[in-house]
Amino acid sequence: MFVMGILFSLISTLLNIVLPLIIRNAIDMRKLIENKMGIQVLLTIGSLLIASTLITAMGNFLVSREGDRLIADVRTKVQTHLMHLPTSFFDNNLSGQLASRVINDASILKNFVSVTIPANISSMFMVIGTLFVLVTLDLKMTILICFCFPLVFLIMVPIGKIIERYSIKSQTELSNLTETTTESLRNIRPVKLNHAEKGVLARFYRYIQNLYHISVKFDEVFSITNPIQTLVSYSIILTLILYGGARVTNGTMTLGTLVSFLIYFFQLTNPINSLAVFYSDYKQAIGATQKINEIMSIPTEDDNGLVISGRQEQNPLILKNVYFAYGQHEVLRNVSLRFEQQKKIAIVGPSGAGKTTIINILTRLYPIDKGELLLGKTPAYKYKLSSWRKLFSIVTQENSILSGSIKDNLLFGLDTKPNNTEINHALNVANLSSDISLMPRGISTIVGEQGVKLSGGQRQRLQIARTYLKQTPVIILDEATSSLDSDSEKNILTSLERLSKDRTVISIAHRLSTIVHSDLIYFVDDHRILACGTHKELLAKLPEYKRFVNEQKL
Ligand code: ADP
Ligand code: MG
Question: Looking at ligand 1, which residue's alpha carbon is closest to its atom 18?
Fold first, then answer.
Protein backbone atom coordinates (compact mmCIF):
# COMPACT_ATOMS: atom_id res chain seq x y z
CA MET A 1 0.00 0.00 0.00
CA PHE A 2 2.88 2.32 0.87
CA VAL A 3 4.59 1.60 -2.44
CA MET A 4 1.31 2.08 -4.25
CA GLY A 5 0.81 5.41 -2.49
CA ILE A 6 4.24 6.50 -3.63
CA LEU A 7 3.50 5.29 -7.17
CA PHE A 8 0.40 7.48 -7.16
CA SER A 9 2.41 10.52 -6.13
CA LEU A 10 4.95 9.72 -8.85
CA ILE A 11 2.17 9.62 -11.43
CA SER A 12 0.84 12.95 -10.25
CA THR A 13 4.38 14.34 -10.36
CA LEU A 14 4.65 13.14 -13.95
CA LEU A 15 1.37 14.89 -14.80
CA ASN A 16 2.72 18.07 -13.23
CA ILE A 17 5.78 17.83 -15.41
CA VAL A 18 3.70 17.39 -18.56
CA LEU A 19 1.08 20.07 -17.83
CA PRO A 20 3.31 23.14 -18.38
CA LEU A 21 4.36 21.69 -21.74
CA ILE A 22 0.73 21.50 -22.82
CA ILE A 23 0.15 25.05 -21.62
CA ARG A 24 3.24 26.20 -23.51
CA ASN A 25 1.93 24.65 -26.71
CA ALA A 26 -1.47 26.20 -26.14
CA ILE A 27 0.09 29.63 -25.85
CA ASP A 28 2.45 29.28 -28.77
CA MET A 29 -0.06 27.72 -31.20
CA ARG A 30 -2.32 30.72 -31.10
CA LYS A 31 -3.70 29.56 -34.43
CA LEU A 32 -5.34 26.64 -32.71
CA ILE A 33 -7.19 28.97 -30.41
CA GLU A 34 -8.31 31.11 -33.31
CA ASN A 35 -9.55 27.96 -35.00
CA LYS A 36 -11.74 27.26 -32.00
CA MET A 37 -9.60 24.29 -31.04
CA GLY A 38 -8.99 26.08 -27.75
CA ILE A 39 -11.87 24.32 -26.02
CA GLN A 40 -10.19 20.99 -26.66
CA VAL A 41 -6.89 22.20 -25.20
CA LEU A 42 -8.67 23.66 -22.16
CA LEU A 43 -10.53 20.39 -21.68
CA THR A 44 -7.25 18.43 -21.83
CA ILE A 45 -5.59 20.72 -19.31
CA GLY A 46 -8.68 20.67 -17.07
CA SER A 47 -9.02 16.91 -17.06
CA LEU A 48 -5.29 16.46 -16.46
CA LEU A 49 -5.52 18.85 -13.51
CA ILE A 50 -8.48 16.97 -12.07
CA ALA A 51 -6.76 13.63 -12.59
CA SER A 52 -3.62 14.93 -10.92
CA THR A 53 -5.64 16.22 -7.96
CA LEU A 54 -7.45 12.91 -7.50
CA ILE A 55 -4.30 10.83 -7.86
CA THR A 56 -2.39 13.05 -5.44
CA ALA A 57 -5.19 12.75 -2.90
CA MET A 58 -5.24 8.98 -3.29
CA GLY A 59 -1.48 8.78 -2.92
CA ASN A 60 -1.52 11.00 0.18
CA PHE A 61 -4.22 8.89 1.76
CA LEU A 62 -2.49 5.57 1.14
CA VAL A 63 0.84 6.80 2.44
CA SER A 64 -0.66 8.44 5.54
CA ARG A 65 -2.64 5.33 6.33
CA GLU A 66 0.57 3.28 6.24
CA GLY A 67 2.08 5.86 8.57
CA ASP A 68 -0.84 5.34 10.95
CA ARG A 69 -0.37 1.62 10.77
CA LEU A 70 3.33 2.03 11.43
CA ILE A 71 2.81 4.15 14.53
CA ALA A 72 0.30 1.63 15.87
CA ASP A 73 2.83 -1.14 15.25
CA VAL A 74 5.73 0.72 16.80
CA ARG A 75 3.73 1.63 19.88
CA THR A 76 2.52 -1.94 20.30
CA LYS A 77 6.03 -3.33 19.88
CA VAL A 78 7.59 -0.88 22.33
CA GLN A 79 4.90 -1.43 24.95
CA THR A 80 5.06 -5.22 24.57
CA HIS A 81 8.83 -5.09 24.81
CA LEU A 82 8.70 -2.85 27.88
CA MET A 83 6.36 -5.23 29.66
CA HIS A 84 8.81 -8.08 29.22
CA LEU A 85 11.93 -6.24 30.32
CA PRO A 86 13.65 -7.41 33.51
CA THR A 87 12.43 -5.91 36.79
CA SER A 88 15.78 -4.20 37.37
CA PHE A 89 15.21 -2.05 34.28
CA PHE A 90 12.27 -0.39 36.01
CA ASP A 91 14.35 0.31 39.12
CA ASN A 92 16.44 2.65 37.00
CA ASN A 93 13.93 4.23 34.60
CA LEU A 94 11.03 6.57 35.20
CA SER A 95 7.68 5.34 33.98
CA GLY A 96 6.57 8.75 32.66
CA GLN A 97 9.65 9.00 30.46
CA LEU A 98 9.08 5.50 29.16
CA ALA A 99 5.49 6.44 28.39
CA SER A 100 6.84 9.36 26.40
CA ARG A 101 8.82 6.92 24.25
CA VAL A 102 5.65 5.02 23.44
CA ILE A 103 3.56 8.12 22.80
CA ASN A 104 5.65 11.12 21.72
CA ASP A 105 8.70 9.65 20.01
CA ALA A 106 6.62 7.23 18.01
CA SER A 107 4.64 10.09 16.49
CA ILE A 108 7.80 11.68 15.05
CA LEU A 109 8.41 8.44 13.21
CA LYS A 110 4.95 8.58 11.76
CA ASN A 111 5.57 12.02 10.38
CA PHE A 112 8.83 10.91 8.83
CA VAL A 113 7.31 7.89 7.15
CA SER A 114 4.04 9.34 5.95
CA VAL A 115 5.18 12.88 5.08
CA THR A 116 8.93 13.23 4.70
CA ILE A 117 9.79 10.08 2.79
CA PRO A 118 6.99 10.29 0.17
CA ALA A 119 7.50 14.05 -0.25
CA ASN A 120 11.20 13.55 -0.91
CA ILE A 121 10.76 10.67 -3.29
CA SER A 122 8.36 12.64 -5.47
CA SER A 123 10.51 15.76 -5.04
CA MET A 124 13.52 13.98 -6.41
CA PHE A 125 11.48 12.68 -9.30
CA MET A 126 10.05 16.15 -9.88
CA VAL A 127 13.43 17.88 -9.87
CA ILE A 128 15.11 15.36 -12.16
CA GLY A 129 12.14 15.14 -14.55
CA THR A 130 11.72 18.90 -14.70
CA LEU A 131 15.40 19.56 -15.31
CA PHE A 132 15.31 17.04 -18.14
CA VAL A 133 12.37 18.82 -19.76
CA LEU A 134 13.88 22.26 -19.18
CA VAL A 135 17.16 21.32 -20.84
CA THR A 136 15.30 20.22 -23.95
CA LEU A 137 13.23 23.43 -23.91
CA ASP A 138 15.98 25.99 -23.45
CA LEU A 139 19.47 25.34 -22.17
CA LYS A 140 20.40 28.90 -21.23
CA MET A 141 17.25 29.44 -19.16
CA THR A 142 17.87 26.12 -17.42
CA ILE A 143 21.39 27.13 -16.47
CA LEU A 144 20.01 30.39 -15.06
CA ILE A 145 17.50 28.50 -12.89
CA CYS A 146 20.18 26.07 -11.77
CA PHE A 147 22.28 28.99 -10.58
CA CYS A 148 19.39 30.48 -8.65
CA PHE A 149 18.27 27.38 -6.75
CA PRO A 150 21.36 26.92 -4.59
CA LEU A 151 20.19 30.17 -2.99
CA VAL A 152 17.30 28.17 -1.55
CA PHE A 153 19.74 25.64 -0.11
CA LEU A 154 21.74 28.46 1.42
CA ILE A 155 18.69 29.43 3.43
CA MET A 156 17.12 26.06 4.10
CA VAL A 157 20.15 24.04 5.22
CA PRO A 158 21.04 26.20 8.24
CA ILE A 159 17.36 26.33 9.15
CA GLY A 160 17.25 22.55 8.99
CA LYS A 161 20.21 22.39 11.37
CA ILE A 162 18.41 24.59 13.90
CA ILE A 163 15.27 22.47 13.61
CA GLU A 164 17.31 19.33 14.14
CA ARG A 165 19.02 20.64 17.26
CA TYR A 166 15.88 21.93 18.90
CA SER A 167 13.65 19.01 18.02
CA ILE A 168 15.86 16.64 20.03
CA LYS A 169 15.76 19.05 22.97
CA SER A 170 12.04 19.35 22.56
CA GLN A 171 11.58 15.57 22.79
CA THR A 172 13.62 15.46 26.00
CA GLU A 173 11.64 18.27 27.58
CA LEU A 174 8.40 16.68 26.49
CA SER A 175 9.34 13.43 28.18
CA ASN A 176 10.30 15.29 31.38
CA LEU A 177 6.97 17.03 31.27
CA THR A 178 5.08 13.76 30.80
CA GLU A 179 6.96 12.27 33.75
CA THR A 180 6.28 15.22 36.09
CA THR A 181 2.63 15.41 35.16
CA THR A 182 1.83 11.73 35.54
CA GLU A 183 3.88 11.27 38.70
CA SER A 184 2.45 14.24 40.55
CA LEU A 185 -1.11 13.38 39.62
CA ARG A 186 -0.73 9.73 40.55
CA ASN A 187 0.67 10.74 43.92
CA ILE A 188 -1.68 13.61 44.61
CA ARG A 189 -2.20 12.62 48.27
CA PRO A 190 1.48 12.56 49.26
CA VAL A 191 1.90 15.81 47.31
CA LYS A 192 -0.89 17.48 49.30
CA LEU A 193 0.09 16.02 52.66
CA ASN A 194 3.74 17.00 52.26
CA HIS A 195 2.64 20.48 51.11
CA ALA A 196 4.71 19.82 48.01
CA GLU A 197 2.42 21.48 45.45
CA LYS A 198 4.75 24.45 45.09
CA GLY A 199 7.79 22.29 44.48
CA VAL A 200 6.00 20.04 42.04
CA LEU A 201 4.56 23.00 40.14
CA ALA A 202 7.95 24.72 40.12
CA ARG A 203 9.40 21.70 38.36
CA PHE A 204 6.44 21.64 36.00
CA TYR A 205 6.87 25.37 35.20
CA ARG A 206 10.54 24.80 34.50
CA TYR A 207 9.80 22.13 31.90
CA ILE A 208 6.96 24.18 30.45
CA GLN A 209 9.26 27.20 30.20
CA ASN A 210 11.97 25.13 28.50
CA LEU A 211 9.45 23.76 26.07
CA TYR A 212 8.07 27.25 25.47
CA HIS A 213 11.51 28.64 24.69
CA ILE A 214 12.17 25.83 22.27
CA SER A 215 8.83 26.47 20.55
CA VAL A 216 9.67 30.18 20.31
CA LYS A 217 12.94 29.23 18.60
CA PHE A 218 10.92 27.22 16.09
CA ASP A 219 8.56 30.17 15.65
CA GLU A 220 11.48 32.52 15.01
CA VAL A 221 12.89 30.21 12.40
CA PHE A 222 9.59 29.48 10.68
CA SER A 223 8.42 33.07 10.71
CA ILE A 224 11.56 34.13 8.87
CA THR A 225 11.58 31.18 6.47
CA ASN A 226 8.42 31.98 4.54
CA PRO A 227 9.02 35.66 3.81
CA ILE A 228 12.63 34.97 2.85
CA GLN A 229 11.53 32.17 0.58
CA THR A 230 9.04 34.53 -1.03
CA LEU A 231 11.75 37.14 -1.43
CA VAL A 232 14.10 34.69 -3.07
CA SER A 233 11.31 33.42 -5.32
CA TYR A 234 10.46 36.95 -6.43
CA SER A 235 14.08 37.68 -7.21
CA ILE A 236 14.39 34.56 -9.29
CA ILE A 237 11.11 35.23 -11.11
CA LEU A 238 12.17 38.80 -11.89
CA THR A 239 15.48 37.54 -13.22
CA LEU A 240 13.71 34.95 -15.34
CA ILE A 241 11.26 37.54 -16.69
CA LEU A 242 13.98 40.11 -17.41
CA TYR A 243 16.19 37.63 -19.18
CA GLY A 244 13.38 35.61 -20.74
CA GLY A 245 11.47 38.78 -21.76
CA ALA A 246 14.51 40.02 -23.66
CA ARG A 247 14.78 36.63 -25.35
CA VAL A 248 11.11 36.67 -26.31
CA THR A 249 11.45 40.20 -27.70
CA ASN A 250 14.43 39.33 -29.86
CA GLY A 251 12.68 36.16 -30.98
CA THR A 252 15.08 33.53 -29.64
CA MET A 253 12.43 32.11 -27.32
CA THR A 254 8.67 31.78 -27.50
CA LEU A 255 6.30 33.33 -24.96
CA GLY A 256 4.97 29.84 -24.23
CA THR A 257 8.42 28.65 -23.22
CA LEU A 258 8.85 31.60 -20.86
CA VAL A 259 5.48 30.95 -19.23
CA SER A 260 6.22 27.25 -18.89
CA PHE A 261 9.56 28.08 -17.26
CA LEU A 262 7.78 30.26 -14.74
CA ILE A 263 5.31 27.48 -13.96
CA TYR A 264 8.12 24.96 -13.63
CA PHE A 265 9.91 27.30 -11.31
CA PHE A 266 6.85 27.50 -9.06
CA GLN A 267 6.50 23.77 -9.10
CA LEU A 268 10.12 23.29 -8.15
CA THR A 269 10.25 25.50 -5.06
CA ASN A 270 8.43 23.12 -2.73
CA PRO A 271 10.37 19.99 -3.77
CA ILE A 272 13.66 21.86 -3.51
CA ASN A 273 12.73 23.14 -0.04
CA SER A 274 11.80 19.69 1.15
CA LEU A 275 15.01 18.19 -0.27
CA ALA A 276 16.99 20.89 1.49
CA VAL A 277 15.59 19.98 4.92
CA PHE A 278 15.48 16.25 4.27
CA TYR A 279 18.70 15.65 6.12
CA SER A 280 17.52 17.43 9.25
CA ASP A 281 14.14 15.68 9.11
CA TYR A 282 16.07 12.46 8.84
CA LYS A 283 18.23 13.34 11.83
CA GLN A 284 15.12 14.19 13.83
CA ALA A 285 13.59 10.81 13.05
CA ILE A 286 16.88 9.15 13.91
CA GLY A 287 16.87 10.98 17.25
CA ALA A 288 13.44 9.58 18.04
CA THR A 289 14.28 6.08 16.88
CA GLN A 290 17.50 6.08 18.86
CA LYS A 291 15.58 6.47 22.08
CA ILE A 292 13.15 3.77 21.04
CA ASN A 293 16.01 1.54 19.89
CA GLU A 294 17.77 1.91 23.21
CA ILE A 295 14.74 0.31 24.82
CA MET A 296 14.28 -2.28 22.08
CA SER A 297 17.92 -3.38 22.30
CA ILE A 298 17.65 -4.34 25.96
CA PRO A 299 17.02 -8.08 26.04
CA THR A 300 13.65 -9.13 27.42
CA GLU A 301 13.23 -11.80 30.05
CA ASP A 302 13.71 -15.15 28.41
CA ASP A 303 10.49 -17.17 28.45
CA ASN A 304 11.76 -20.42 27.02
CA GLY A 305 11.93 -23.75 28.76
CA LEU A 306 9.85 -26.46 30.27
CA VAL A 307 6.33 -26.13 31.57
CA ILE A 308 6.02 -27.24 35.18
CA SER A 309 3.80 -30.29 35.53
CA GLY A 310 1.40 -31.00 38.39
CA ARG A 311 3.75 -33.64 39.74
CA GLN A 312 6.80 -31.38 39.61
CA GLU A 313 4.85 -28.76 41.56
CA GLN A 314 5.12 -31.06 44.56
CA ASN A 315 8.93 -30.82 44.67
CA PRO A 316 10.53 -28.54 47.25
CA LEU A 317 11.77 -25.09 46.26
CA ILE A 318 15.42 -24.70 47.16
CA LEU A 319 17.77 -21.73 47.34
CA LYS A 320 21.32 -23.00 47.64
CA ASN A 321 24.29 -20.78 48.53
CA VAL A 322 22.73 -17.81 46.82
CA TYR A 323 24.39 -14.41 46.43
CA PHE A 324 22.46 -11.45 45.21
CA ALA A 325 23.03 -7.72 44.73
CA TYR A 326 20.82 -4.94 43.37
CA GLY A 327 23.44 -3.50 41.04
CA GLN A 328 26.36 -2.84 43.40
CA HIS A 329 24.30 -3.14 46.58
CA GLU A 330 24.86 -6.61 47.97
CA VAL A 331 21.80 -7.84 49.84
CA LEU A 332 22.11 -11.61 50.15
CA ARG A 333 25.30 -13.39 51.01
CA ASN A 334 25.40 -17.14 50.75
CA VAL A 335 21.82 -17.86 51.80
CA SER A 336 20.24 -21.29 51.61
CA LEU A 337 16.56 -22.00 52.18
CA ARG A 338 14.32 -24.95 51.55
CA PHE A 339 10.57 -24.66 51.07
CA GLU A 340 8.92 -28.08 51.35
CA GLN A 341 5.55 -28.15 49.62
CA GLN A 342 2.40 -28.03 51.73
CA LYS A 343 4.33 -26.70 54.71
CA LYS A 344 3.93 -23.41 56.52
CA ILE A 345 7.23 -21.61 56.40
CA ALA A 346 8.09 -18.22 57.86
CA ILE A 347 10.90 -15.79 57.20
CA VAL A 348 11.55 -13.32 60.01
CA GLY A 349 14.19 -10.75 60.74
CA PRO A 350 14.71 -7.03 61.10
CA SER A 351 13.55 -4.58 58.46
CA GLY A 352 15.96 -4.25 55.55
CA ALA A 353 17.47 -7.68 56.24
CA GLY A 354 16.57 -8.99 52.80
CA LYS A 355 13.32 -10.90 53.37
CA THR A 356 11.46 -9.38 50.44
CA THR A 357 14.58 -9.86 48.35
CA ILE A 358 14.41 -13.61 49.02
CA ILE A 359 10.86 -13.55 47.63
CA ASN A 360 12.00 -11.47 44.64
CA ILE A 361 14.53 -14.15 43.82
CA LEU A 362 12.23 -17.06 44.50
CA THR A 363 9.64 -15.66 42.09
CA ARG A 364 12.42 -14.87 39.59
CA LEU A 365 11.65 -11.17 39.49
CA TYR A 366 15.43 -10.82 39.67
CA PRO A 367 17.96 -13.42 38.53
CA ILE A 368 20.45 -14.61 41.16
CA ASP A 369 24.11 -13.69 40.79
CA LYS A 370 25.61 -16.84 42.21
CA GLY A 371 24.27 -20.07 43.67
CA GLU A 372 21.26 -22.13 42.73
CA LEU A 373 17.50 -21.89 42.67
CA LEU A 374 15.95 -25.32 42.26
CA LEU A 375 12.60 -27.01 42.02
CA GLY A 376 13.44 -30.46 43.33
CA LYS A 377 16.63 -31.25 41.47
CA THR A 378 15.97 -29.09 38.43
CA PRO A 379 17.43 -25.57 38.18
CA ALA A 380 14.76 -22.90 37.88
CA TYR A 381 16.12 -21.49 34.62
CA LYS A 382 15.22 -24.77 32.87
CA TYR A 383 11.56 -23.87 33.37
CA LYS A 384 9.61 -21.34 31.41
CA LEU A 385 9.49 -18.10 33.37
CA SER A 386 5.74 -17.69 32.93
CA SER A 387 5.19 -21.27 34.09
CA TRP A 388 7.46 -20.68 37.09
CA ARG A 389 5.64 -17.56 38.22
CA LYS A 390 2.36 -19.46 38.10
CA LEU A 391 3.63 -21.46 41.08
CA PHE A 392 3.10 -18.41 43.24
CA SER A 393 0.43 -16.02 44.25
CA ILE A 394 1.56 -13.21 46.41
CA VAL A 395 0.29 -10.56 48.74
CA THR A 396 2.95 -7.88 49.03
CA GLN A 397 3.69 -4.93 51.24
CA GLU A 398 3.12 -2.67 48.29
CA ASN A 399 -0.27 -1.64 47.13
CA SER A 400 -1.09 -3.75 44.10
CA ILE A 401 -4.68 -2.68 43.66
CA LEU A 402 -5.60 -1.34 40.24
CA SER A 403 -8.25 1.11 39.12
CA GLY A 404 -11.51 -0.60 38.18
CA SER A 405 -13.99 -2.46 40.33
CA ILE A 406 -13.48 -4.83 43.24
CA LYS A 407 -14.38 -7.63 40.90
CA ASP A 408 -11.80 -6.54 38.32
CA ASN A 409 -9.21 -6.69 41.05
CA LEU A 410 -10.31 -10.11 42.20
CA LEU A 411 -10.07 -11.52 38.69
CA PHE A 412 -6.82 -9.73 37.84
CA GLY A 413 -4.50 -12.14 36.03
CA LEU A 414 -6.83 -15.12 36.41
CA ASP A 415 -7.00 -17.49 33.43
CA THR A 416 -10.27 -19.07 34.49
CA LYS A 417 -13.42 -17.27 35.45
CA PRO A 418 -14.55 -18.25 38.94
CA ASN A 419 -18.29 -18.54 39.61
CA ASN A 420 -20.13 -16.52 42.24
CA THR A 421 -19.79 -19.21 44.91
CA GLU A 422 -16.04 -19.27 44.49
CA ILE A 423 -15.85 -15.49 44.58
CA ASN A 424 -17.95 -15.33 47.76
CA HIS A 425 -15.81 -18.03 49.26
CA ALA A 426 -12.63 -16.04 48.60
CA LEU A 427 -14.24 -12.92 50.04
CA ASN A 428 -15.16 -14.88 53.16
CA VAL A 429 -11.66 -16.23 53.58
CA ALA A 430 -10.29 -12.72 53.29
CA ASN A 431 -12.89 -11.45 55.77
CA LEU A 432 -14.11 -8.96 53.20
CA SER A 433 -17.76 -9.99 52.73
CA SER A 434 -19.26 -7.72 55.38
CA ASP A 435 -17.29 -4.71 54.12
CA ILE A 436 -18.53 -5.27 50.58
CA SER A 437 -22.12 -5.78 51.64
CA LEU A 438 -22.01 -2.24 53.06
CA MET A 439 -20.83 -0.75 49.78
CA PRO A 440 -23.62 0.68 47.61
CA ARG A 441 -22.59 -1.21 44.48
CA GLY A 442 -21.18 -4.28 46.22
CA ILE A 443 -18.58 -6.13 44.26
CA SER A 444 -18.96 -3.72 41.32
CA THR A 445 -17.80 -0.78 43.44
CA ILE A 446 -15.15 1.23 41.64
CA VAL A 447 -12.07 1.46 43.85
CA GLY A 448 -10.29 4.43 42.20
CA GLU A 449 -6.65 4.72 41.21
CA GLN A 450 -4.56 2.24 43.20
CA GLY A 451 -7.67 1.55 45.28
CA VAL A 452 -7.80 4.97 46.96
CA LYS A 453 -11.43 4.46 47.85
CA LEU A 454 -10.62 1.49 50.08
CA SER A 455 -9.00 1.47 53.49
CA GLY A 456 -5.49 0.08 53.83
CA GLY A 457 -6.85 -3.03 55.51
CA GLN A 458 -9.49 -3.52 52.83
CA ARG A 459 -6.83 -3.27 50.15
CA GLN A 460 -4.78 -5.97 51.85
CA ARG A 461 -7.79 -8.22 52.30
CA LEU A 462 -8.71 -7.70 48.65
CA GLN A 463 -5.22 -8.87 47.71
CA ILE A 464 -5.63 -11.89 49.97
CA ALA A 465 -8.94 -12.80 48.32
CA ARG A 466 -7.30 -12.40 44.90
CA THR A 467 -4.41 -14.60 45.97
CA TYR A 468 -6.75 -17.20 47.30
CA LEU A 469 -8.66 -17.40 44.01
CA LYS A 470 -5.47 -18.04 42.07
CA GLN A 471 -5.25 -21.62 43.46
CA THR A 472 -1.48 -21.71 43.07
CA PRO A 473 0.58 -24.32 44.95
CA VAL A 474 2.47 -21.60 46.83
CA ILE A 475 0.98 -18.60 48.62
CA ILE A 476 3.37 -15.86 49.68
CA LEU A 477 2.33 -13.36 52.31
CA ASP A 478 4.93 -10.60 52.54
CA GLU A 479 3.80 -8.58 55.56
CA ALA A 480 0.40 -9.18 54.09
CA THR A 481 -1.51 -8.51 57.25
CA SER A 482 0.51 -5.55 58.51
CA SER A 483 -2.38 -3.12 57.95
CA LEU A 484 -4.85 -5.25 59.85
CA ASP A 485 -5.68 -5.26 63.53
CA SER A 486 -4.61 -8.42 65.31
CA ASP A 487 -8.16 -9.78 65.56
CA SER A 488 -8.91 -9.69 61.86
CA GLU A 489 -5.40 -10.86 61.14
CA LYS A 490 -6.01 -13.91 63.30
CA ASN A 491 -9.34 -14.53 61.57
CA ILE A 492 -7.85 -14.38 58.14
CA LEU A 493 -4.87 -16.52 58.97
CA THR A 494 -6.99 -19.24 60.55
CA SER A 495 -9.32 -19.41 57.59
CA LEU A 496 -6.43 -19.21 55.15
CA GLU A 497 -4.69 -22.00 56.97
CA ARG A 498 -7.79 -24.13 57.08
CA LEU A 499 -8.45 -23.62 53.40
CA SER A 500 -4.90 -23.92 52.19
CA LYS A 501 -4.04 -27.20 53.87
CA ASP A 502 -2.65 -28.66 50.66
CA ARG A 503 -0.79 -25.50 49.75
CA THR A 504 2.56 -24.07 50.71
CA VAL A 505 2.38 -20.82 52.63
CA ILE A 506 5.47 -18.68 52.92
CA SER A 507 4.87 -15.80 55.29
CA ILE A 508 6.95 -12.87 56.24
CA ALA A 509 5.54 -11.16 59.30
CA HIS A 510 6.38 -8.76 62.05
CA ARG A 511 3.85 -10.18 64.40
CA LEU A 512 4.94 -13.17 66.37
CA SER A 513 1.44 -14.61 66.61
CA THR A 514 1.37 -15.20 62.90
CA ILE A 515 4.53 -17.27 62.76
CA VAL A 516 4.86 -19.26 65.97
CA HIS A 517 2.94 -22.19 64.52
CA SER A 518 4.98 -22.39 61.34
CA ASP A 519 6.58 -25.71 60.47
CA LEU A 520 9.85 -23.95 59.85
CA ILE A 521 11.15 -20.47 60.61
CA TYR A 522 14.14 -18.82 58.93
CA PHE A 523 15.76 -15.98 60.78
CA VAL A 524 17.43 -13.48 58.45
CA ASP A 525 19.82 -10.77 59.59
CA ASP A 526 22.83 -9.00 58.23
CA HIS A 527 22.27 -10.40 54.69
CA ARG A 528 22.46 -13.97 55.94
CA ILE A 529 20.30 -16.76 57.34
CA LEU A 530 21.34 -16.93 60.96
CA ALA A 531 19.44 -20.12 61.74
CA CYS A 532 16.31 -22.07 61.01
CA GLY A 533 14.02 -24.31 63.01
CA THR A 534 10.69 -24.29 64.76
CA HIS A 535 9.78 -21.52 67.16
CA LYS A 536 10.92 -23.61 70.13
CA GLU A 537 14.18 -24.67 68.53
CA LEU A 538 15.08 -21.11 67.58
CA LEU A 539 14.25 -19.81 71.04
CA ALA A 540 16.63 -22.36 72.44
CA LYS A 541 19.53 -21.86 70.05
CA LEU A 542 19.43 -18.32 68.66
CA PRO A 543 19.85 -15.36 71.05
CA GLU A 544 18.94 -12.91 68.21
CA TYR A 545 15.63 -14.70 67.81
CA LYS A 546 15.03 -14.63 71.52
CA ARG A 547 15.66 -10.88 71.58
CA PHE A 548 13.31 -10.48 68.59
CA VAL A 549 10.59 -12.44 70.40
CA ASN A 550 11.05 -10.50 73.61
CA GLU A 551 10.78 -7.18 71.81
CA GLN A 552 7.52 -8.42 70.29
CA LYS A 553 6.13 -9.40 73.66
CA LEU A 554 6.98 -5.99 75.01
P1 ADP B 1 13.13 -6.56 54.04
O2 ADP B 1 12.04 -7.10 53.22
O3 ADP B 1 13.82 -7.61 54.86
O4 ADP B 1 12.71 -5.42 54.90
P5 ADP B 1 14.33 -5.95 51.48
O6 ADP B 1 14.63 -7.29 50.96
O7 ADP B 1 13.17 -5.26 50.93
O8 ADP B 1 14.28 -5.98 53.08
O9 ADP B 1 15.59 -5.01 51.24
C10 ADP B 1 16.89 -5.42 51.55
C11 ADP B 1 17.87 -4.33 51.11
O12 ADP B 1 17.84 -4.21 49.72
C13 ADP B 1 17.55 -2.95 51.64
O14 ADP B 1 18.78 -2.39 52.13
C15 ADP B 1 17.05 -2.17 50.47
O16 ADP B 1 17.49 -0.85 50.52
C17 ADP B 1 17.66 -2.88 49.28
N18 ADP B 1 16.75 -2.90 48.12
C19 ADP B 1 15.51 -3.43 48.07
N20 ADP B 1 14.99 -3.33 46.83
C21 ADP B 1 15.94 -2.74 46.07
C22 ADP B 1 16.03 -2.36 44.70
N23 ADP B 1 15.02 -2.59 43.83
N24 ADP B 1 17.14 -1.76 44.25
C25 ADP B 1 18.16 -1.53 45.11
N26 ADP B 1 18.17 -1.86 46.40
C27 ADP B 1 17.07 -2.46 46.90
MG1 MG C 1 10.13 -6.51 52.97
Answer: 326
